[in-house]
Write a structure and sequence with these properties.
The structure holds 2 protein chains of 2 kinds.
Chain A (H helix, E strand, L loop, with lengths): L1 E4 L3 E6 L2 E6 L7 H24 L7 E4 L3 E5 L4 E2 H4 L2 H16 L2 E2 L8 E4 L2 E4 L6 E2 L3 H18 L3 H15 L3 H14 L4
Antiparallel strand pairs in A: 1-2, 2-3, 3-5, 4-5, 6-8, 7-10, 8-9
Helix pairs in contact in A: 3-5, 4-5, 4-6
Chain B lengths: L4 E5 L4 E7 L4 E8 L9 H25 L9 E7 L3 H18 L3 E5 H12 L6 E5 L4 E7 L2 E7 L5 H11 L6 H9 L12 E2 L2 E2 L2 H10 L5 H27 L3 E5 L6 H14 L2 E3 L10 H13 L29
Parallel strand pairs in B: 1-4, 4-5, 6-11, 11-12
Antiparallel strand pairs in B: 1-2, 2-3, 6-7, 7-8, 9-10
The chains are: A alpha+beta, B alpha/beta.
């Protein structure tokens, strides 16, 4: 079953297993294209496992090939449909753990978080990278706050609750939350 | 009624002034600073602009006169507030203020990056594009949303053109480096692996430029130039594609002097083709820095009532395009 196609990869569900494949780009030299897709596939798998070691639930990886990752299908409700201040606080804790580990998710949206057996899973680490700067962490949160604003009515409560959870697991939280305000003023990353 | 605006551009090495109305460039005069050795020296470039500004404006008004334009027909004088080299910006701003005072018309301070975007939209069928703006100092992916040109991705260090120039200097090629690199790249036969740096929606060229310089020690210059272009352009096209996917827009517009590169155009064309988007490139004279783009954005802003008090017309070398209130686009 075909699930999604972003700018980079296609995601299908076969026999209860998610298969994510990075598709070739014709505009890129073949050699370069294959190198990038291989590197990113490996990096995605590595960061998903690293996140799990840091206490952030992510799908279990079954197999990695050159351009594909086979992983656990998380059956559950995307937070997009059920978001609340309580859930947002838990999300803040999870992001704090990622950022403490130097991991930037790169695409934090409430569609990329799934509630399953009372645990929130983070999925789609396709744009994740390692960066310990406050700017990168700030942009990571800013992107999420923008989805709050565009898809959830009580976005101010959600942002505040998220900050409470985030502070609990990440010592630099206040600096990052301050930076988010600056980033908003710049009007970037719409 | 027809609106006529003079624009003066001189943020870096090109001093150029033009007169436009709603439909055409009525006159344009350009005087380019070329460094004897090395790259652009900001003070020398500013001295060049100071030396030629009066002559360029005089010649422009002469040329306008030949086409039946009188000085009294001019409605406003536009110039770049930034971004650009501080000494160059100040020199051109002074010339623009004097001209506005002597013609007794309003002054319009514009953003140089936004001017590149607007002239591209003027001179191609693009209406609401994702814009890849690539020049010496700037490399950005922009798109309009809710009253602003948002920056979706940009360079974390130097512009692609400056990165090319830096590499070209160490390879013994003269300024500007881009055209020579493109020339050498045509005769390459092997790709030399170089770092590909895309972080989220941003890209970085400084490390790539250094790695390419190192690669010269053990590889032919043709192969290094080719590999440098392939790597750098793939980074730019990737972020442009992501912005397209994210915004759901159906057009890509290429802007800036580096947009003259045929390989970059080809890659963007392939990407747009695969996504079913339209790809637009303006005529070459409207891609690099030019007076017409400043005049045209000045015209749009003047008509929307966005003029600049002379007392508040100080330049800003770091003026960001997303700091500009877009008053001239009306949403349907």
């Amino acid at each position: 079953m075909y699930l999604a196609s972003g700018a980079e990869a296609t995601v299908t569900l076969e026999h209860g297993v998610i298969i994510k494949e990075r598709v070739p780009k014709r505009y890129r030299l073949k050699e370069l294209d294959e190198r990038i897709r291989k590197e990113r596939t490996r990096a995605e798998a590595r960061l998903m496992s690293e996140a799990r070691r840091r206490g952030v639930p992510t799908p279990i990886i079954y197999d990695i090939e050159d351009f594909t990752i086979e992983m656990e299908y998380i059956r559950g409700e995307p937070l997009k449909n059920i978001m609340s201040p309580e859930l947002s606080e838990s999300v803040g804790e999870l992001i704090g753990r990622l950022h403490s580990g130097g991991i930037i998710h790169g695409d934090l949206t409430t569609s990329n978080m799934i509630l399953h057996n009372d645990r929130i899973y983070m999925i789609d680490f396709g744009l994740a990278f390692v960066d310990r700067t406050i700017e990168a962490q700030g942009v990571d949160l800013h992107v999420l706050f923008q989805t709050f604003e565009s898809t959830h009515n009580q976005h101010e409560e959600l942002i505040e609750a998220l900050g409470n959870g985030y502070r609990r697991t990440f010592p630099d939280a206040d600096d990052v939350l301050k930076r988010v305000k600056e980033i908003e003023k710049r009007g970037r990353y719409a | 009624m027809e609106t006529i605006v003079i624009g003066i551009e001189g943020t870096a090495w090109n001093l150029s002034a033009a007169i436009v109305n709603e439909t055409d460039v009525l006159a344009e005069v350009t005087e380019t600073y070329s460094p004897k050795t090395g790259g652009i020296h900001p003070r020398e470039a500013a001295q060049h602009h100071a030396t030629y500004a009066a002559g360029v404006i005089r010649d422009l008004l002469e040329e306008g006169k030949k086409n039946g334009l009188k000085a009294s027909n001019i409605n406003a004088v536009a110039f770049s507030l930034g971004p650009g080299l501080g000494p160059c910006l100040r020199t051109v701003a002074t010339a623009a203020r004097m001209l506005a005072l002597s013609l007794d018309v309003p002054l319009v301070g514009v953003n140089h990056c936004v001017a590149h975007v607007e002239i591209g939209k003027w001179k191609t069928p693009a209406r609401d594009p994702v814009v890849l703006y690539v020049s010496g100092a700037n490399s950005q992916v922009l798109a309009y949303r809710a009253g602003r040109y948002r920056v979706f991705g940009e360079t974390l260090d130097i512009g692609i053109g400056n990165a090319f120039d830096k590499f070209a200097r160490s390879a013994g090629l003269s300024h500007p480096g881009g055209p020579k690199i493109e020339e050498y790249a045509r005769n390459a036969d092997t790709y030399v692996p170089l770092p590909y740096v895309v972080k989220g929606m941003d890209f970085s060229f400084s490390g790539l430029s250094t790695a390419a310089t190192d690669a010269l020690k053990s590889n032919p210059i043709e192969d290094v130039c080719y590999s440098y272009q392939e790597t750098a352009f793939a980074m730019l096209v990737e972020v442009t594609e992501r912005a397209l996917a994210h915004t759901g827009k159906g057009e890509v517009l290429l802007a800036g002097g580096v947009g003259a590169n045929m390989r970059l155009r080809e890659m963007l064309d392939i990407m747009c083709d695969d996504r079913g988007a339209s790809f637009y490139v303006p005529e070459k004279r409207f891609m690099g820095d030019n007076g017409a783009m400043i005049a045209y954005l000045g015209l749009l802003m003047f008509k929307a009532g966005s003029v600049t008090d002379i007392g508040k017309s100080h330049v800003n070398p770091n003026f960001r395009p997303d700091d500009v209130d877009v008053t001239w686009i009306t949403e349907d």
